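Dear Dr. K.,

Following up on our conversation at the group meeting, I've run the structure prediction for NADH dehydrogenase from Ectopseudomonas toyotomiensis. I'm pasting the input sequence below exactly as I used it, so you can double-check it against your construct before we proceed with anything downstream. Let me know if the numbering doesn't match what you have in your notebook.
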Amino acid sequence: MKQRILIVGGGFAGVWSALSAMRLLDQHGRTDIGVTMLAPQPELRIRPRFYEPNVQSMKAPLTELLAAVGVEFVQGTAEGIDAPRQQVSYRDAAGKPGSLSYDRLVLASGSRLMRPALEGMEAHLFDVDEIEQAVRLEQHLASLAERPPSTARNTVVVAGGGFTGIETATEMPARLRALLGDDAAIRVVVVDRGEEIAAALGDGIRPAISEASRELGIEWCLGRMVVAVDANGVTLDDGQRIASHTVIWTVGFRASALTEQINAPRDHQGRLQVDSQLKVQGQPAIFAAGDTARAATDDVGNFSVMSCQHAIALGRHAGNNAAAELIGIAATHYSQPKYVTCLDLGAWGAVYSEGWDRQVKLIGSEAKTLKQQINSLWIYPPVADRAIALAAADPAIPVA
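The predicted C-alpha coordinates came back this morning:
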Protein backbone atom coordinates (compact mmCIF):
# COMPACT_ATOMS: atom_id res chain seq x y z
CA MET A 1 0.00 0.00 0.00
CA LYS A 2 1.32 3.43 -0.94
CA GLN A 3 2.64 5.47 1.96
CA ARG A 4 1.47 9.07 2.37
CA ILE A 5 3.00 12.34 3.48
CA LEU A 6 0.12 14.61 4.42
CA ILE A 7 0.60 18.38 4.36
CA VAL A 8 -2.09 20.29 6.25
CA GLY A 9 -2.19 23.88 4.99
CA GLY A 10 -1.71 25.67 1.68
CA GLY A 11 0.21 28.73 2.83
CA PHE A 12 3.92 29.41 2.45
CA ALA A 13 4.99 26.58 4.75
CA GLY A 14 2.51 24.13 3.26
CA VAL A 15 3.44 24.82 -0.35
CA TRP A 16 7.16 24.57 0.25
CA SER A 17 6.74 21.44 2.39
CA ALA A 18 4.89 19.72 -0.44
CA LEU A 19 7.42 20.78 -3.08
CA SER A 20 10.38 19.79 -0.92
CA ALA A 21 8.96 16.36 -0.13
CA MET A 22 8.30 15.71 -3.82
CA ARG A 23 11.78 16.92 -4.70
CA LEU A 24 13.46 14.32 -2.49
CA LEU A 25 11.15 11.52 -3.57
CA ASP A 26 11.79 12.43 -7.20
CA GLN A 27 15.55 12.41 -6.69
CA HIS A 28 15.39 8.88 -5.27
CA GLY A 29 12.87 7.58 -7.78
CA ARG A 30 10.35 6.74 -5.08
CA THR A 31 6.88 6.42 -6.56
CA ASP A 32 5.65 4.28 -3.68
CA ILE A 33 5.20 7.35 -1.46
CA GLY A 34 2.60 10.00 -2.24
CA VAL A 35 2.30 13.60 -1.10
CA THR A 36 -1.15 15.03 -0.34
CA MET A 37 -2.03 18.61 0.54
CA LEU A 38 -5.21 19.34 2.50
CA ALA A 39 -6.29 22.98 2.43
CA PRO A 40 -9.51 25.04 2.24
CA GLN A 41 -8.71 26.31 -1.26
CA PRO A 42 -6.07 25.60 -3.94
CA GLU A 43 -4.41 28.98 -3.58
CA LEU A 44 -1.65 30.62 -1.59
CA ARG A 45 -2.91 33.83 -0.05
CA ILE A 46 -0.33 36.61 0.17
CA ARG A 47 -1.14 37.69 3.72
CA PRO A 48 1.68 40.28 4.06
CA ARG A 49 -0.22 42.57 1.65
CA PHE A 50 -3.78 42.39 2.95
CA TYR A 51 -3.63 46.00 4.13
CA GLU A 52 -3.27 47.20 0.51
CA PRO A 53 -6.13 47.91 -1.95
CA ASN A 54 -7.29 45.32 -4.50
CA VAL A 55 -6.82 42.55 -1.98
CA GLN A 56 -8.80 40.07 -4.12
CA SER A 57 -5.75 39.73 -6.39
CA MET A 58 -3.35 38.85 -3.58
CA LYS A 59 -3.34 35.11 -4.06
CA ALA A 60 -1.49 32.61 -6.20
CA PRO A 61 -3.34 29.63 -7.73
CA LEU A 62 -1.84 26.25 -6.87
CA THR A 63 -3.78 23.76 -9.00
CA GLU A 64 -1.39 23.72 -11.95
CA LEU A 65 1.72 23.84 -9.77
CA LEU A 66 0.67 20.91 -7.59
CA ALA A 67 -0.39 18.88 -10.62
CA ALA A 68 2.94 19.58 -12.33
CA VAL A 69 4.94 18.11 -9.44
CA GLY A 70 2.52 15.29 -8.65
CA VAL A 71 1.05 16.48 -5.35
CA GLU A 72 -2.53 15.36 -4.71
CA PHE A 73 -4.77 18.21 -3.55
CA VAL A 74 -7.76 17.62 -1.28
CA GLN A 75 -9.99 20.64 -0.75
CA GLY A 76 -11.21 20.76 2.81
CA THR A 77 -10.73 22.24 6.25
CA ALA A 78 -8.90 20.10 8.79
CA GLU A 79 -10.87 19.71 12.01
CA GLY A 80 -9.10 17.04 14.01
CA ILE A 81 -5.77 15.26 14.37
CA ASP A 82 -5.67 11.76 15.83
CA ALA A 83 -1.95 11.26 16.36
CA PRO A 84 -2.13 7.68 17.75
CA ARG A 85 -4.17 6.53 14.73
CA GLN A 86 -2.30 8.82 12.33
CA GLN A 87 -5.43 10.33 10.84
CA VAL A 88 -6.71 13.82 10.09
CA SER A 89 -10.43 14.51 9.91
CA TYR A 90 -11.77 17.32 7.71
CA ARG A 91 -14.83 18.78 6.04
CA ASP A 92 -14.87 19.37 2.32
CA ALA A 93 -16.16 22.49 0.56
CA ALA A 94 -19.72 21.11 0.70
CA GLY A 95 -19.48 20.39 4.42
CA LYS A 96 -19.16 16.62 4.01
CA PRO A 97 -16.88 14.98 6.61
CA GLY A 98 -13.88 12.93 5.57
CA SER A 99 -10.58 11.63 6.89
CA LEU A 100 -7.07 11.08 5.59
CA SER A 101 -4.47 8.73 7.00
CA TYR A 102 -0.78 9.53 6.98
CA ASP A 103 2.59 7.96 7.53
CA ARG A 104 4.14 11.37 8.12
CA LEU A 105 2.27 14.59 8.81
CA VAL A 106 3.51 18.13 8.24
CA LEU A 107 1.31 20.56 10.13
CA ALA A 108 1.48 23.89 8.30
CA SER A 109 -1.96 25.26 9.10
CA GLY A 110 -0.74 28.77 9.88
CA SER A 111 -1.99 31.22 12.46
CA ARG A 112 -5.01 33.37 13.10
CA LEU A 113 -5.73 36.77 14.55
CA MET A 114 -7.26 36.56 18.00
CA ARG A 115 -10.18 39.00 17.99
CA PRO A 116 -11.07 40.32 21.44
CA ALA A 117 -14.38 39.74 23.17
CA LEU A 118 -15.34 43.40 22.95
CA GLU A 119 -18.83 44.83 22.85
CA GLY A 120 -19.67 45.66 19.25
CA MET A 121 -16.80 43.56 17.90
CA GLU A 122 -18.59 41.63 15.17
CA ALA A 123 -20.44 44.59 13.69
CA HIS A 124 -17.90 47.37 14.04
CA LEU A 125 -14.38 45.92 14.17
CA PHE A 126 -12.32 45.28 11.02
CA ASP A 127 -9.10 43.35 10.44
CA VAL A 128 -6.74 42.35 7.61
CA ASP A 129 -6.06 38.76 8.65
CA GLU A 130 -7.87 37.00 5.79
CA ILE A 131 -8.82 38.03 2.26
CA GLU A 132 -12.51 38.00 3.17
CA GLN A 133 -11.97 40.35 6.11
CA ALA A 134 -9.67 42.61 4.10
CA VAL A 135 -12.30 42.81 1.33
CA ARG A 136 -14.88 43.75 3.95
CA LEU A 137 -12.60 46.59 5.10
CA GLU A 138 -11.97 47.69 1.51
CA GLN A 139 -15.70 47.86 0.80
CA HIS A 140 -16.26 49.79 4.02
CA LEU A 141 -13.57 52.33 3.15
CA ALA A 142 -15.12 52.86 -0.28
CA SER A 143 -18.49 53.50 1.35
CA LEU A 144 -17.11 56.35 3.48
CA ALA A 145 -17.31 58.72 0.51
CA GLU A 146 -21.09 58.31 0.54
CA ARG A 147 -21.36 59.52 4.13
CA PRO A 148 -21.58 63.17 5.16
CA PRO A 149 -18.25 64.69 6.27
CA SER A 150 -17.53 64.25 9.96
CA THR A 151 -14.62 63.63 12.30
CA ALA A 152 -15.69 60.00 12.71
CA ARG A 153 -15.89 59.44 8.94
CA ASN A 154 -12.42 60.85 8.40
CA THR A 155 -10.74 58.98 11.29
CA VAL A 156 -9.22 55.50 11.25
CA VAL A 157 -8.19 53.88 14.53
CA VAL A 158 -5.66 51.04 14.33
CA ALA A 159 -5.47 48.91 17.46
CA GLY A 160 -1.92 47.60 17.79
CA GLY A 161 1.46 49.06 16.94
CA GLY A 162 3.28 45.96 15.74
CA PHE A 163 4.25 45.12 12.14
CA THR A 164 0.71 44.65 10.87
CA GLY A 165 -0.59 47.69 12.72
CA ILE A 166 2.17 49.97 11.45
CA GLU A 167 1.89 48.81 7.83
CA THR A 168 -1.89 49.17 7.96
CA ALA A 169 -1.79 52.61 9.57
CA THR A 170 0.80 54.03 7.18
CA GLU A 171 -1.25 52.86 4.21
CA MET A 172 -4.38 54.65 5.42
CA PRO A 173 -3.63 58.37 4.80
CA ALA A 174 -3.16 57.92 1.05
CA ARG A 175 -6.16 55.61 0.78
CA LEU A 176 -8.43 57.98 2.68
CA ARG A 177 -7.37 61.00 0.61
CA ALA A 178 -7.96 59.06 -2.61
CA LEU A 179 -11.48 58.25 -1.40
CA LEU A 180 -12.42 61.46 0.41
CA GLY A 181 -10.38 64.10 -1.41
CA ASP A 182 -7.14 65.92 -0.65
CA ASP A 183 -8.97 68.58 1.34
CA ALA A 184 -10.47 66.13 3.83
CA ALA A 185 -9.18 66.44 7.41
CA ILE A 186 -7.77 62.92 7.63
CA ARG A 187 -6.85 61.43 11.00
CA VAL A 188 -5.14 58.07 11.63
CA VAL A 189 -4.55 56.99 15.23
CA VAL A 190 -2.54 53.98 16.40
CA VAL A 191 -3.55 52.78 19.86
CA ASP A 192 -0.80 50.70 21.45
CA ARG A 193 -0.16 49.54 25.00
CA GLY A 194 3.58 50.15 24.67
CA GLU A 195 5.02 53.25 26.27
CA GLU A 196 6.88 54.35 23.12
CA ILE A 197 6.36 54.11 19.39
CA ALA A 198 6.96 50.57 18.09
CA ALA A 199 8.16 49.48 21.51
CA ALA A 200 8.22 45.78 20.56
CA LEU A 201 10.34 46.37 17.44
CA GLY A 202 13.42 47.76 19.13
CA ASP A 203 15.57 50.84 18.79
CA GLY A 204 17.00 50.02 15.36
CA ILE A 205 14.02 50.88 13.18
CA ARG A 206 12.10 53.12 15.60
CA PRO A 207 13.53 56.41 14.25
CA ALA A 208 12.31 55.59 10.74
CA ILE A 209 8.85 54.65 12.05
CA SER A 210 8.69 57.86 14.08
CA GLU A 211 9.76 60.01 11.12
CA ALA A 212 7.28 58.32 8.80
CA SER A 213 4.51 58.80 11.36
CA ARG A 214 5.28 62.51 11.64
CA GLU A 215 5.40 63.07 7.89
CA LEU A 216 2.23 61.07 7.26
CA GLY A 217 0.38 62.70 10.16
CA ILE A 218 -0.16 59.47 12.08
CA GLU A 219 -0.87 59.88 15.78
CA TRP A 220 0.20 57.38 18.42
CA CYS A 221 -1.89 56.91 21.57
CA LEU A 222 0.59 55.09 23.80
CA GLY A 223 0.12 53.08 26.97
CA ARG A 224 -3.54 52.55 26.13
CA MET A 225 -5.87 49.74 25.02
CA VAL A 226 -9.21 49.64 23.22
CA VAL A 227 -11.88 48.30 25.57
CA ALA A 228 -15.09 48.99 23.59
CA VAL A 229 -16.06 49.74 20.01
CA ASP A 230 -19.32 50.89 18.42
CA ALA A 231 -20.53 52.42 15.16
CA ASN A 232 -19.16 55.84 16.08
CA GLY A 233 -15.80 55.10 17.66
CA VAL A 234 -13.77 53.46 20.41
CA THR A 235 -13.39 53.80 24.14
CA LEU A 236 -9.94 53.34 25.66
CA ASP A 237 -9.05 51.88 29.04
CA ASP A 238 -8.53 55.36 30.50
CA GLY A 239 -12.03 56.41 29.45
CA GLN A 240 -10.84 58.43 26.45
CA ARG A 241 -13.16 58.43 23.47
CA ILE A 242 -12.02 58.56 19.82
CA ALA A 243 -14.71 59.19 17.22
CA SER A 244 -14.25 56.87 14.25
CA HIS A 245 -16.26 54.86 11.76
CA THR A 246 -13.25 52.64 11.00
CA VAL A 247 -11.52 50.60 13.71
CA ILE A 248 -8.96 48.00 12.60
CA TRP A 249 -7.74 45.30 15.00
CA THR A 250 -4.17 43.99 14.46
CA VAL A 251 -3.20 42.60 17.88
CA GLY A 252 -2.60 39.01 18.96
CA PHE A 253 -1.72 36.26 16.49
CA ARG A 254 -1.91 32.64 17.61
CA ALA A 255 -1.02 29.36 15.93
CA SER A 256 -3.80 27.31 14.37
CA ALA A 257 -6.04 25.61 16.93
CA LEU A 258 -4.99 22.26 15.44
CA THR A 259 -1.78 22.48 17.47
CA GLU A 260 -3.88 22.04 20.61
CA GLN A 261 -4.89 18.56 19.44
CA ILE A 262 -1.31 17.32 19.53
CA ASN A 263 0.15 16.14 22.82
CA ALA A 264 3.31 18.20 22.76
CA PRO A 265 4.83 21.33 24.35
CA ARG A 266 3.58 24.66 22.98
CA ASP A 267 4.67 28.25 23.56
CA HIS A 268 2.51 31.24 24.53
CA GLN A 269 1.44 31.64 20.89
CA GLY A 270 0.35 28.01 20.66
CA ARG A 271 3.30 27.00 18.47
CA LEU A 272 4.60 23.45 18.76
CA GLN A 273 8.15 22.94 19.97
CA VAL A 274 10.19 21.25 17.25
CA ASP A 275 13.75 19.92 17.09
CA SER A 276 16.34 20.86 14.46
CA GLN A 277 14.74 18.43 12.00
CA LEU A 278 11.38 20.15 12.66
CA LYS A 279 9.85 17.08 14.27
CA VAL A 280 7.34 17.87 16.99
CA GLN A 281 8.64 16.98 20.41
CA GLY A 282 7.33 13.56 21.49
CA GLN A 283 5.55 12.87 18.18
CA PRO A 284 7.48 10.42 15.95
CA ALA A 285 5.30 10.94 12.86
CA ILE A 286 4.54 14.68 13.01
CA PHE A 287 6.54 17.64 11.73
CA ALA A 288 5.52 21.31 12.00
CA ALA A 289 6.41 24.26 9.80
CA GLY A 290 5.57 27.93 9.48
CA ASP A 291 3.43 29.62 12.12
CA THR A 292 2.67 26.34 13.91
CA ALA A 293 6.35 25.71 14.74
CA ARG A 294 8.65 27.17 17.37
CA ALA A 295 12.04 26.41 15.85
CA ALA A 296 15.49 27.57 16.87
CA THR A 297 17.00 29.58 14.01
CA ASP A 298 20.55 29.60 15.40
CA ASP A 299 22.67 28.58 18.38
CA VAL A 300 22.38 31.84 20.31
CA GLY A 301 18.77 31.71 21.43
CA ASN A 302 16.73 33.12 18.54
CA PHE A 303 13.55 31.43 17.32
CA SER A 304 11.46 31.63 14.17
CA VAL A 305 8.76 34.28 13.97
CA MET A 306 5.41 34.22 12.22
CA SER A 307 6.51 35.44 8.80
CA CYS A 308 6.88 34.15 5.26
CA GLN A 309 10.63 34.64 5.62
CA HIS A 310 10.79 31.76 8.10
CA ALA A 311 7.80 29.79 6.78
CA ILE A 312 9.41 29.17 3.38
CA ALA A 313 12.64 27.78 4.85
CA LEU A 314 10.80 25.79 7.52
CA GLY A 315 8.62 24.26 4.83
CA ARG A 316 11.59 23.25 2.70
CA HIS A 317 13.16 21.41 5.64
CA ALA A 318 9.97 19.89 7.07
CA GLY A 319 8.81 18.38 3.78
CA ASN A 320 12.30 17.13 2.95
CA ASN A 321 12.68 15.51 6.35
CA ALA A 322 9.27 13.85 6.31
CA ALA A 323 10.27 12.21 3.02
CA ALA A 324 13.82 11.47 4.17
CA GLU A 325 12.54 9.55 7.18
CA LEU A 326 10.28 7.34 5.07
CA ILE A 327 13.00 6.46 2.58
CA GLY A 328 15.66 6.00 5.25
CA ILE A 329 18.18 8.73 4.50
CA ALA A 330 19.67 11.47 6.65
CA ALA A 331 17.53 14.48 7.45
CA THR A 332 18.60 18.09 7.03
CA HIS A 333 18.94 20.36 10.05
CA TYR A 334 17.10 23.65 9.94
CA SER A 335 19.22 26.75 10.55
CA GLN A 336 18.42 30.32 9.52
CA PRO A 337 20.82 32.63 11.33
CA LYS A 338 20.25 35.57 8.99
CA TYR A 339 17.21 37.60 9.95
CA VAL A 340 15.96 40.61 7.99
CA THR A 341 12.92 42.84 8.20
CA CYS A 342 11.41 45.13 5.60
CA LEU A 343 8.63 47.24 7.05
CA ASP A 344 6.35 49.10 4.66
CA LEU A 345 5.64 52.69 5.73
CA GLY A 346 3.11 53.77 3.14
CA ALA A 347 3.81 56.87 1.05
CA TRP A 348 6.90 57.63 3.16
CA GLY A 349 8.69 54.52 1.90
CA ALA A 350 9.93 51.60 3.99
CA VAL A 351 12.74 50.58 6.32
CA TYR A 352 14.94 47.53 5.75
CA SER A 353 17.10 46.08 8.51
CA GLU A 354 19.31 43.09 9.14
CA GLY A 355 19.94 41.11 12.30
CA TRP A 356 17.82 40.47 15.37
CA ASP A 357 18.87 43.89 16.66
CA ARG A 358 17.49 45.37 13.41
CA GLN A 359 20.44 47.33 12.06
CA VAL A 360 19.04 49.67 9.43
CA LYS A 361 20.47 49.22 5.93
CA LEU A 362 17.94 51.01 3.70
CA ILE A 363 15.23 53.59 4.33
CA GLY A 364 12.71 55.54 2.30
CA SER A 365 12.32 54.93 -1.43
CA GLU A 366 15.21 52.44 -1.67
CA ALA A 367 13.67 50.23 0.99
CA LYS A 368 10.26 50.67 -0.62
CA THR A 369 11.58 49.32 -3.93
CA LEU A 370 12.95 46.29 -2.11
CA LYS A 371 9.65 45.78 -0.27
CA GLN A 372 7.74 45.87 -3.56
CA GLN A 373 10.08 43.26 -5.03
CA ILE A 374 9.55 41.02 -2.00
CA ASN A 375 5.78 41.39 -2.12
CA SER A 376 5.32 41.07 -5.88
CA LEU A 377 8.04 38.60 -6.88
CA TRP A 378 10.13 36.89 -4.23
CA ILE A 379 7.48 35.35 -2.00
CA TYR A 380 5.29 33.94 -4.78
CA PRO A 381 5.54 30.19 -5.51
CA PRO A 382 7.47 29.00 -8.57
CA VAL A 383 5.92 28.49 -11.98
CA ALA A 384 4.08 25.26 -12.80
CA ASP A 385 7.13 23.59 -14.30
CA ARG A 386 8.17 20.36 -12.56
CA ALA A 387 11.93 20.79 -12.87
CA ILE A 388 11.91 24.47 -11.89
CA ALA A 389 9.52 23.99 -8.97
CA LEU A 390 11.35 21.03 -7.48
CA ALA A 391 14.75 22.71 -7.83
CA ALA A 392 13.39 25.76 -5.99
CA ALA A 393 12.41 23.57 -3.02
CA ASP A 394 15.97 22.55 -2.09
CA PRO A 395 16.35 23.13 1.68
CA ALA A 396 19.95 24.18 1.09
CA ILE A 397 18.76 27.39 -0.60
CA PRO A 398 19.24 30.30 1.79
CA VAL A 399 16.23 32.49 2.54
CA ALA A 400 16.85 36.15 3.44
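Two things stood out to me. The first strand starts at residue 3 and ends at 8. The mean pLDDT is 95.

Best regards,
J.T.
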